[in-house]
Design brief:
Layout lengths: L10 H11 L6 E4 L1 H14 L4 E5 L6 H9 L3 E4 L2 H9 L7 E3 L6 H9 L4 E4 L2 H10 L4 E5 L8 E3 L9 H13 L3 E6 L4 E3 L3 H21 L5 E3 L15 H16 L5 E4 L3 H4 L3 E11 L8 E5 L19 E2 L6 E7 L8 E3 L5 E3 L7 E5 L20 E4 L1
Helix pairs in contact: 2-3, 5-6, 7-8, 8-9
This protein binds pyridoxal-5'-phosphate.
């Protein structure tokens, strides 16, 4: 096929995953943890002074957590279930942040009981709950950011608050006996516009300054969330370009008074480590002159490819056949007409593609298996193997 595989995988990693999968039943997801290791090391080398909090939601497989624990990563946790998983591999509580701004009171109490003392917030009600159930803890406030037009998977609106509210929350935190610790943002996942970090960082520096000057509150930390790119069909800049630009924004805004920097990468660490393998179930044309084939495969929106919703994430699909290629509509195996991954963006596939052939979905290590339904149409959840 007319695809440059080296843009997605090192040759040895590609061969290793493909060989390993050759005897496995499809659909399945194979993760090469060496790639996670490499991605983590690369990100740390670009931001040597930052603390990395891996966003567990991207891929909570045990070998991935074990590897990152060995590397002394920190962990961004969204629920008590994720908390159990990281504690089970030996992560210590001071390396954990409860990063979800939407949490039950009993869950805050559970985190506190387990020793977690760092919490995200974006509302007064949540902050009061933290003060009651996690007294004396450090809190950081999440602000709203721009950039939803340029992120493939935006995270704005639902999370974060405006600057004025952020300032009020930090003042209230102090009054409630909590430690007003910092500010966080997330510019949106798979953010293509590096400038989105510029406006977010400058908002944060403004909040730091106002709290210091007007309220004598010294914040210590800025959490820059995730948003770093993975390799999908549409190109992005490489991580070193992101890192150089963001470092420049940091220096321009904070000069000699740099706060502690936290990063919360999910997608960029694990997406490139994964390859989803599916099988073609059926190929058809809707009439004899139709320009496009419909290719139905045994993985779909409900079995791991949820991020194809609105065709947001455009995965590169590869098969072992050659010859003339033509765009195809790609759909999943269930009896639900929403189970169409790509109808506008039609991935190119060879005309020689046949029923029973395997399709290789590149860069699928993040936000796939965990999105998979447990029994829709009776299909089991996506099986994951780590090598
Ligand atoms: C609070 C928080 N931090 C970090 C991430 C990870 O972001 P990304 O996968 O873009 O690196 C997410 C993703 O949803 C998130 O909600």
């Amino acid at each position: 096929m007319n695809i440059d595989i080296s843009r997605f995988y090192a040759p040895d990693s590609f061969a290793k995953i493909k060989d390993f999968a050759s005897e496995l039943e499809t659909p399945c997801l194979v993760i090469d943890t060496d790639v996670v290791n490499k991605q983590y090391t690369e990100l740390s080398s670009h931001f040597p002074d930052a603390k990395i909090y891996y966003a567990v939601k991207a891929n909570p497989e045990k070998p991935v957590l074990e590897l990152l624990n060995q590397k002394r990563s920190n962990f961004d946790i969204a629920s008590t279930y994720e908390l159990e998983r990281v504690l089970a591999v030996g992560v210590t509580p001071e390396r954990i942040s409860f990063g979800n701004t939407i949490k039950k009171r009993k869950d805050i109490a559970y985190f506190y009981e387990k020793g977690i003392r760092l919490y995200a917030t974006d509302s007064k009600a949540d902050l009061r709950n933290i003060a009651e159930f996690a007294p004396g803890s450090k809190v950081y406030v999440r602000i709203l950011t721009e950039g939803s037009q340029t992120a493939d998977w935006p995270l704005s609106r639902k999370f974060g608050c405006q600057n004025d509210m952020a300032i009020d929350l930090m003042i209230l935190a102090k009054e409630l006996g909590l430690v007003p610790y910092g500010v966080s943002f997330h510019v949106g996942s798979q953010q293509r516009d590096i400038g989105a970090w510029d406006s977010a960082i400058s908002k944060v520096s403004h909040i730091f300054k106002r709290l210091q000057d007007e309220h004598d509150i010294t914040l210590k930390m800025m959490n820059m969330g995730g948003g770093f790119p993975a390799n999908y069909s549409s190109h992005t800049q490489s991580l070193d370009v992101y890192a150089a630009q963001i470092t420049h924004f940091l220096e321009a805004n904070f000069k000699d008074d740099m706060p502690e920097i936290f990063l919360e990468p999910g997608r960029s660490l694990v997406a490139p480590a994964g390859m989803l393998i599916s099988e073609v179930v059926l190929i058809s044309r809707k009439d004899k002159f139709a320009l496009h084939r419909w290719v139905y495969t045994d993985v779909g929106k409900f079995s791991g490819l949820a991020e194809t919703l609105d065709e947001s994430i455009k995965y590169t699909i590869y098969c072992d056949k050659d010859g003339e290629e033509e765009g195809a509509v790609i759909a999943g195996p269930t009896c639900d007409s929403a189970d169409i991954m790509y109808e506008n963006y039609k991935p190119m596939l060879p005309l020689t593609l046949d029923i029973g052939d395997r399709l290789y979905w590149f860069s699928t290590g993040a936000y796939t298996a965990t999105y998979s339904a447990i029994e829709f149409n009776g299909f089991p959840p996506l099986r994951t193997y780590c090598i």
